[in-house]
Amino acid sequence: MFKILRDLLRYNIEFAIGFVLTLAIFLFALAHFWAPLPDNAIYLLPPDMPPSAQYWFGTTSRGQDVLWQMSSAIWNTMLFGLSVTILSRLLAVAVGMISGYLGGKWDEFLMTINDTMIALPNIPILLLVYFVMRDQMSWPVLALTAALLGWNYDARLIRSVTLSLRNREFTRHAVFAGMSVPQILVRQHLPYVMPVIFFTAMNNLIWAIGLEVTLSVLGFSDINRPTIGGMIYWANQHQAIIAGIWWWIAFPIIAVVLLFLGLFLLAISVNEYIDPRSRLSRMGA
Question: Which segments constitute the ABC transmembrane type-1 domain (predicted)?
Fold first, then answer.
């Protein structure tokens, strides 16, 4: 793992830039644990103060320090994205590998479910869940719903890799050695699937963060929990642009753009690393 990271940092400038951007944003988000005030406290500071030596990113109309609000918001947004990504990867790996290896009726059954999920529109379903469970809508419920909608495309990709491994010589040897299906999938096939999992995880993380920002900006989430989308939502509610409080909405937008850029560069870099021809060309072979 560390060798791969070293090679990517050494030979791939996009990965290096993406890594630095993402790490910087992560460290900034980590700082919220040392915030001087609770992240949900309001009207404790002078409102609408522009950026200054005392308040680096200014304050909001709700009497909150934009700097510390952003730190907490980025942390919660990234945590949401990671939760969705991990849950959806578990589903994608389980469905894709079982379907690809077992084939037959299992493949037909699982791929029917998978294709049905692909056909469903994500945003309308999430909005429906919000309106049905408005009083019970919480961050975990939203993350679980997003995860249930975010695994299907990647399951097909993982299935195709597993299909190519099913008839390989080492798979036959594992069967003759008496290994069970779970043992074959975990010990023999999973190492070959891991690069695909990493690549799809990066894409899914970008999707999940974008989904959270979109839903929160529209108010279809727990807006009392600080997130990037939640900050933009409250800025719009207080008409920050019209009132000239540009820093309230500008800094969160800059942060999410930098986060997207960092994750995107990491995703395309990992994708290139998976392709042996791209990797060798970058290393000058």
Answer: 74-267
